[in-house]
Design a protein that fits this description.
The protein is mainly beta. It has one helix and six strands. It starts with 6 loop residues before the first strand and ends in a 10-residue tail after the last strand.
């Protein structure tokens, strides 16, 4: 019997660190590895992918299963895996930890950035 195991993805959080002389916000990216994240093609989700495409005019490429206990903010953040950078679409769907039988209780959809839909897994 094979156990499910996710991969390590890099969450790229953008945080405002101040303002410039013209009072425009200045941002800095912070990268943090998140282990045991499940990655699956979004097309297997069917209805959820169509809803995202219809409501937000964005095409979900992958679905991420986030491990229980993760406290990161995923909404609108960038994620690096499979050699590409992706952007989280909308808010994650969260299940009640005690009611979900496996190690993941949060689902995020990600889109390709700049129209790059490369699904290279190298």
């Amino acid at each position: 019997m094979t156990r499910l195991k996710g991969i390590t993805v890099t969450l790229i959080r953008r945080e405002q660190t101040g303002v410039d002389p013209f009072n425009a916000p200045v941002y800095q990216d912070t990268e943090e590895d998140v282990e045991n994240v499940l990655v699956a093609p979004a097309q297997s989700g069917g209805e959820e992918v169509l809803d995202t495409l219809t409501l937000e005019a964005r095409k979900a490429v992958y679905r991420l299963g986030i491990p229980k206990g993760d406290a990161h903010t995923w909404e609108g953040q960038r994620v690096r895996f499979f050699g590409n950078v992706w952007r989280v679409i909308g808010k994650p769907t969260v299940g009640i930890e005690d009611m979900v039988p496996l190690a993941w209780n949060k689902i995020c959809l990600v889109e390709a950035i700049n129209g790059d839909e490369t699904e290279s897994q190298g």
